[in-house]
Structures are given as structure tokens and as C-alpha cells.
Design the sequence.
């Protein structure tokens, strides 16, 4: 079975219809279903809900009990608001870049033969399965002063350029690692478009541009919004890439949280920063659910 | 988690110059990631048997030297197994606060050690328990920590870029006209920013550095900032930037630079205006192997293990008797040799502890400017 088919079917399987009613109705079956959920819920309660609650409580914890001073501090000192803006700026740029690269790629994937699509999909997915740390270091090697990129430039007679430890290198690194999320989201939406619509439009004399604008674009809009929100949400919390590839000005929320935890040992303030980051992420998911519906995250059709 | 990265750290040493850095940095990153992500993963190794001591390690060539020069001899002598564990300050504090143990004996730079002391994380040392070591030979000895070794932060430059004349002082390091090229200096994340060097560049004499005029130091740093590619936030990054020619000059720990030079990197160490810093030994309050921790600390500080371990990585022993066992020509290259002592200065751990938090807050703003 091809990778592409696997991916496709895998996504489709998640959207299986609910169990037949006669199974669910019986009280005994209810209990069975609940018991089936216990391992997952227990795991999440211990390793997700509890630490999360602990962080939230810490963020309101001061010398005299409950306090809002940590949140006040965030807005008092311009630096933290500025870091938040930088975080949005980087995440926004990465979202736009992944969309520009992923859209044509997903279109090709959705239109070529299954065989070719399988090969292309493998090219998208295989790096996705590699550790992010390895991929980030690979980029550091490629972009370094004596790396592949500068060697090619040198061979063409250009001066080497500084491509590491600045904004472009963060954008390259993050766009690269987040690209598959955008490609997969767009691809699943594009697969669901009825090809007859396109044929009908052409048969009625529509130009390529019109087919794109009036058929493809509106039908892929859920994918565009969904993929963008997904990439943006993931980018907002990024740590490794900006830390390793970024310059001194590319501080993101996660890097300043680490600074507070590890250097200043100011864990309550770090918790407040984490809570703010969490809120932003939840708002992102809320938008996603409202605009697209969380179901499309798992579905192969619009 | 720690165990895997530890094993890999020792496995890669001795690799060829070049391809090594990225690998080392991957491992460093793994260790850092593990430290940041998993605060307090129970150490599974513990349960195996008695007769162990868990020691904090920063990995790399330093750990190899400790293994060869100190830990092996200690294990042979006492039968107590030494287990190195990677941990940063936050992780150590979390270990103490949760009472979970997992680390007994720690060694770290003085500011970080004093931070832990101020958080109440260190055992008050019982001086009567030292047998191998005469504490009068050690400097400094405080209630909660003792000096273990002295390392130096120095000006490191690329010899191919500066074959004839190289920047020989921090004033010359700041002189981008005479000595052009991208540079790096230390970020707050790697111990502390180089405020001392900035003041020296601004004409302050070595004797008048402390208390540091913070505003003046930051102003001077702003001057050089456009020429800084990136302030190095780990020793590994500082080493790789100068080795891979991303920068032509940087501040760096002399022992780090020496590792690069030994592997063939065309680097020079300028000892003039080098800053001597203290690595201190202490015992965590949550130590589950208190007796063994005392024994290892006692052993580590004694003259012969110090002599067998520290000079290999260009560190000076804190025990003055150790120099009886060190070849004089080797001793002359160490941070505390009479010659280096004369042209360098001592970092004031005390000043940094008083002012570190404030400087760290300012530093974040400085970076974003």
C-alpha cells in the first residue's frame, strides 16, 4: 500500500461513523466505553491536567497568597509585550511562507497520478518523521559560513552571506519544519473537491485565473484557514528553532519563559507567561473550531 | 534520558576535527532539552544498589578528565560508584524542592552556586568530615561551598585572520577599525554577560572593576553590538562560532578554546585581561547519599586527584598543594600561573550574586534593542 494511500485512508478512518445505536444504548456498553477511555484520561489527568493546573495556580501565587502581580508585570514592562509582538510577527511570517510554498505543492499532489503523488508525499513526510533537533542542526550546517549554501554562492563568484543567527534563518528553519502541516491540511481539502466542477468551468470557457478564483480558492478556503491557524498555533509556541538558529533579537515567548525558569528562577512569573501563551493558543483553536470546525483536522473531505 | 546523552557524550570524543561540532552541539542540545523539559524525571539508575554517588556534570572533555583523573581512582579506592547526571540550576532547585533526590554532589560556577545557596538548596558543610583534604589549602572555603577549580575566560581570536597583529586587550577587541570582522561575546544564559570586559574596553582599570558600573558597561556593549553576530548562550555555541569562522574573535573559556586548538583549529588564546572564575563544589540538601557525597568531595579536593584531572582541561586546582604534582611547564599555562595571574583578574562572585537578577532583566531588554 502506498504511503499516500495510507495517509489518505488513515485520515479517513478517523472519521468513521459512530457505533451502531443498539451498542451504545445499553448501560453495560456505556460502561465499556467509559472503561476504554480510562487509560487515556488517566494519563492526561496525571501528565497534562495536573501540571497545567499547577502552572495556572503558580501564576496567581504571590508572597501573600493570591495575586495578579505576575500578569501586571507582563504588561508593565514593554519588553514582554514586545516579545509577544515578535512572536506574532515570526509566527505570521512563517504561516504566510508555508502557505505560499504548500499551496501549489498540495495542488500538484492532489492532481497527479497516485503513483507520483505517493512519491511526492513521501518526500514531504519523511523529513517530518525526523527529529526536529536533527533537522535544525542540518540547517545550521547548510547555512553556515562554510556550508553548502555559501559554497554554491562562492562557486558562482558571490561573497558569502551571513544566513545564520538572524531573522531569515529562523524563518527558513520554522517554515521548513512546519510545512508538512500545511501541505497535509491543504491536500486533504483539495482531494475532496469535485473535479467535475473544474471541468465544467473550463467547458463553459473560464480562464485558468477564473477557475482558480471562483472554484479552487473558495473550495480550498477551509484548508487555507485551517492550515494557517494550525501552523500559527504551533509556531507561537516554538522553542528549539528560534533558540538555535535565531539571533539576539529573535526572542519568542518560549525562549523568555525558559530564561525566567532557568536563569532567574522566577517560576511564578514564568507560569504567568506560560498561561498567556496557553490563552493565545486556545484562542487560536477557538477560532479554528468556529471558522473551520475541529472535525476537519481529522477528515479528508470538506 | 540523561543516561543516553551521557553515554553518547563520551563516545564521540576523539572524533576528527570538523564534523565533531555539530554532533557535540546536538548532544548538548539534547542534554539542555532534557533538562528543560523533564524537571524531575525519577532516576531509574538509583534503585540498583547501594554505594553510589550522583554527581552533577556539564559533560564534554571536562567530564572525561574527571572520569580518568578522579572518579576511576575514587571508585577503585572506595568501591562507591560515581554516576554523572546532567542538570541545570532550575533542575537542581526542583530536585531539592520536591525532595526527590537524584543528585548529591554538585559543581558549578560560583554565581550559580550562590544562587542555590540563597534558595536554601545547599547543605551546610561539616568541616570535620574531610580526611583526604586539608581545607586550609583550599581557597575559598565558605559555609555552604568550597572552591574546586579556577577557570579563565579569555579573548580568543582566529590566527588566520590575524596572522601578524591580533587584538591583545579588550580595548583592541572593541576596535573594529584596526581589527575588522564579526565577533561574539557571552550571553547572560552562559553564566553572565561580559560587563567586566566592556568596562576594561572603556578604560576602567582591572583594580576598579567592582562594583561594576552597570550603565556604563551596557553603553559600551551597545557600541560593539552591531558587530556581534550572536551573543553565545552556551559554551558549545561560542566554540563552534569561532571554530567555523562565523566570528573572528570572541570571549571564551580558555579550556574550551584549548580543546579546539588541540584538534587543529587555527585559534589563539590571549591571556591578557583574562577573567578568572571559580568553579565551586557543594552538596544538595536533597542528597540521598550524603556520606558518599562527602567522601567524593573530600577526595576530589585532595592534591593528587586535582593534579591528575584539572590541568588536562586547562583548569587550575583550588588546592594549592596540587601544584606539587603538576609539571612546572604545564602549570605555567594554567589560569592561576604567576604570569597569567599578573595580567588577569578575579571575577567577583559576590558582586554577581547581589546584582545578577537586575543585570539579567536588563540584558533581555538590551538584546531586543
Sequence:
Amino acid at each position: 500500500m502506498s504511503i499516500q494511500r495510507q495517509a489518505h485512508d488513515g485520515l479517513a478512518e478517523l472519521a468513521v461513523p459512530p457505533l451502531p445505536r443498539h451498542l451504545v444504548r445499553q448501560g453495560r456498553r456505556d460502561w465499556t466505553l467509559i472503561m476504554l477511555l480510562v487509560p487515556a484520561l488517566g494519563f492526561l489527568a496525571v501528565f497534562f491536567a495536573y501540571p497545567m493546573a499547577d502552572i495556572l495556580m503558580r501564576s496567581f501565587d504571590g508572597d501573600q497568597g493570591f495575586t495578579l502581580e505576575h500578569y501586571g508585570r507582563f504588561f508593565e514592562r514593554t519588553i514582554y509585550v514586545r516579545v509577544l509582538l515578535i512572536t506574532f510577527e515570526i509566527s505570521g511570517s512563517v504561516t504566510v511562507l508555508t502557505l505560499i510554498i504548500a499551496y501549489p505543492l498540495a495542488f500538484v499532489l492532489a492532481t497527479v497520478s497516485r503513483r507520483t503523488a505517493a512519491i511526492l508525499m513521501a518526500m514531504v513526510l519523511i523529513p517530518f518523521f525526523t527529529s526536529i533537533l536533527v533537522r535544525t542542526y542540518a540547517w545550521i550546517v547548510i547555512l553556515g559560513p562554510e556550508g553548502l549554501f555559501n559554497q554554491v554562492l562562492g562557486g558562482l563568484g558571490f561573497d558569502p552571506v551571513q544566513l545564520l543567527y538572524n531573522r531569515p534563518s529562523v524563518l527558513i528553519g520554522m517554515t521548513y519544519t512546519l510545512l508538512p502541516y500545511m501541505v497535509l491540511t491543504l491536500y486533504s481539502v483539495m482531494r475532496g473537491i469535485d473535479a467535475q466542477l473544474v471541468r465544467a468551468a473550463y467547458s463553459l470557457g473560464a480562464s485558468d485565473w477564473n477557475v482558480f478564483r471562483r472554484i479552487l480558492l473558495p473550495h480550498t478556503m477551509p484548508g487555507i484557514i485551517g492550515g494557517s491557524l494550525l501552523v500559527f498555533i504551533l509556531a507561537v509556541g516554538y522553542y528549539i528553532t528560534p533558540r538555535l538558529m535565531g539571533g539576539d533579537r529573535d526572542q519568542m515567548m518560549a525562549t523568555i519563559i525558559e530564561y525566567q525558569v532557568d536563569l532567574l528562577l522566577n517560576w511564578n512569573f514564568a507560569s504567568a507567561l506560560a498561561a498567556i501563551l496557553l490563552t493565545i493558543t486556545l484562542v487560536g483553536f477557538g477560532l479554528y473550531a468556529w471558522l473551520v470546525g475541529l472535525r476537519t483536522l481529522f477528515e479528508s473531505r470538506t | 534520558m540523561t543516561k543516553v546523552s551521557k553515554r553518547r557524550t563520551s563516545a564521540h570524543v576523539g572524533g576528527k576535527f570538523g564534523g565533531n561540532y555539530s554532533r557535540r552541539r546536538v548532544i548538548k542540545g539534547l542534554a539542555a532539552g532534557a533538562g528543560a523539559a523533564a524537571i524531575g524525571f525519577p532516576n531509574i539508575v538509583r534503585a540498583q544498589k547501594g554505594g553510589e554517588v550522583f554527581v552533577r556534570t556539564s559533560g564534554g572533555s571536562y567530564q572525561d578528565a574527571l572520569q580518568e583523573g578522579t572518579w576511576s581512582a575514587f571508585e577503585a579506592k572506595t568501591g562507591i560508584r560515581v554516576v554523572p547526571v546532567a542538570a541545570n540550576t532550575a533542575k537542581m532547585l526542583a530536585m531539592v524542592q520536591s525532595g526527590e533526590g537524584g543528585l548529591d554532589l554538585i559543581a558549578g560556577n560560583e554565581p550559580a552556586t550562590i544562587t542555590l545557596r540563597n534558595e536554601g538548596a545547599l547543605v551546610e558543610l561539616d568541616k570535620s568530615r574531610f580526611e583526604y583534604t586539608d581545607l586550609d589549602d583550599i581557597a575559598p572555603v565558605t559555609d555552604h561551598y568550597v572552591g574546586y577549580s579556577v577557570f579563565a575566560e579569555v579573548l580568543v581570536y582566529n590566527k588566520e585572520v590575524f596572522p601578524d597583529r591580533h587584538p591583545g586587550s579588550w580595548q583592541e577587541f572593541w576596535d573594529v577599525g584596526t581589527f575588522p570582522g564579526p565577533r561574539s561575546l557571552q550571553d547572560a544564559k552562559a553564566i553572565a554577560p561580559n560587563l567586566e570586559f566592556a568596562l576594561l574596553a572603556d578604560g576602567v582599570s582591572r583594580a576598579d572593576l567592582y562594583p561594576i558600573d552597570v550603565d556604563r558597561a551596557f553603553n559600551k556593549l551597545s557600541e560593539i553590538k552591531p558587530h556581534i553576530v550572536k551573543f553565545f548562550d552556551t559554551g558549545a555555541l561560542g566554540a563552534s562560532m569561532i571554530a567555523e569562522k562565523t566570528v573572528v574573535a570572541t570571549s571564551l573559556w580558555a579550556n574550551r578554546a584549548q580543546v579546539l586548538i588541540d584538534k587543529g583549529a587555527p585559534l589563539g588564546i590571549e591571556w591578557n585581561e583574562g577573567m578568572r572564575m571559580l568553579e565551586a563544589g557543594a552538596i544538595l540538601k536533597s542528597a540521598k547519599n550524603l556520606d558518599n557525597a562527602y567522601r567524593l568531595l573530600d577526595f576530589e579536593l585532595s592534591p593528587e586527584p586535582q593534579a591528575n584531572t584539572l590541568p588536562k582541561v586547562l583548569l587550575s586546582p583550588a588546592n594549592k598543594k596540587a601544584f606539587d604534582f603538576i609539571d612546572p611547564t604545564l602549570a605555567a599555562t594554567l589560569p592561576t600561573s604567576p604570569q597569567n595571574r599578573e595580567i588577569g583578574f578575579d571575577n567577583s562572585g559576590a558582586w554577581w550574586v547581589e546584582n545578577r537578577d537586575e543585570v539579567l532583566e536588563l540584558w533581555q531588554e538590551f538584546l531586543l534593542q
About this structure: Chain A touches chain B through 30 residues (CB under 8 Å). Chain A has one domain: 3-17+67-297. The CA atoms of residues 211 and 217 of chain A lie 8 Å apart. Confidence is low (pLDDT under 50) at residues 1-15 of chain A.
